[in-house]
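Q: What would this chain look like folded?
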Amino acid sequence: MRLGACSTLRQLLRFNRRLNVSWLHSSVEAESRVREIVRIVNEHPYPAQPLRPTLGRAIPKAVLSSSSLVEEVLGALFGAHGNGLKAYELFRYCLDCNDVYIPSSDAFEKTLHILARMRYFEKAWELLERMKQLHPSLLTLKSMSILLSKIAKFRSYEETLEAFERMQVDIFTRKRFTTDEFNVLLRAFCTQRQMKEAKSVFNKMHSQFPPNTKTMNILLLGFKESGDITAVELFYHDMVRRGFKPNMRRRFGDALMILQEMEQSGHSATLETLTTLIHGAGIVGNTSMAKQIFGDITKRNLQPDTGAYNALMSTLIRSRDVTSAAALMDEMEKYSIKHDNMTYHNMFLGMMRSSGIHGVSTLYSKMVAKNFIPKPRTVVMLMKFFCQSGRLDLALDIHALDLLVTGLCARGRVEESFDCSKQSLIRGRLVSDGTIQLLQRALVGVDEIRKLEELKHMIVKLKSLLPPCGLTSLQKYSPT
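A: My prediction, written as structure tokens:
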């Protein structure tokens, strides 16, 4: 029996070796075939010459029964940033061999990604239409995300919304769009850090697609990644107002534990990490912890920057300790740490809630004296507050508008500078001569003569209602 058992064991070992050798030979052969097909596709002069006949010789129908070969070829083309049209032609050839080839989701998504990445959007839509007819089960949230994220990156806000609607009406016809699809659209904008657009979509469509926890997390992460911590906090409170109840205290506690574990394992916390924790402490209402973390910054041989000061200042204002926040702002000036838009925005919010128009106007005067140009969101907030407080002289401060328009034009944000000037005219205040000259150059430079004419018409109309005070540059200008 022992001899018989040994004999059987030797036979099994020999059979296993033959299997391994056979598998290894098959694997090497498959890799060689993939490299050869990739080489043929890359070197082919398509579209100058048709690619189909070459593919027919290089990839016989018999080998298409294995979908892994197509996946690996497309994966190699994807990784090498190969010609998108060639990859699409390869996938189309395989689809036409429908008696032997059944596409996998991986092969379809790679082809779609290649086309979208190279901005062949018409071909991408053509592919979606065909998959709708032949293999609708492969139309998933992932394929939707692939195309929408690239359209959001390379095309306009309106075109992205049109693409989403086209998917809903024409492509994904077998399913009813829910919050899951809405989240894909939001993520497309958030991935590109287009948070203004993401928030606009949210406000426009949230009644149609009731937001869930995932929706809120997508937006919060998007605001965080964009670096606009003030926007994170404002949106967080907006979420709470809408009834969303995240367990932030538990998560903040988890974050502190992670910091402790990091340091125990020899990894020092960065200034960015500590700043994020200060913001977190503020959100959960733990002002003392925020102060402690801020105080620990120098103990860790780090120096607080504008972001760290802003984080603590925001926490203090949230706890209605505006006096301490103002002292912190003075401390920044003492140590030559620059005030940025977030610094002023936070302080203006605090002043509005505490000392009212007196505190806001005092801080506003200091800001203007430093020639600081606030962002449009802060300007709009201030103009609204000044108008509500009966201080139109501050709301229409000519120096502030000049600074704002100059700064926006210098940054290439001509559309926003036009809007600010238009709002000033709507409110009954003529725009200064210098501002008009600057706008004239900027609008002509971007071929926006129509908007220039619109401003001209508004000025002429306003002039007819105001006492004579001389011509503006725009009235002297006559576009040729």
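Residues 15-25, 469-480 have pLDDT under 50 and may be disordered.
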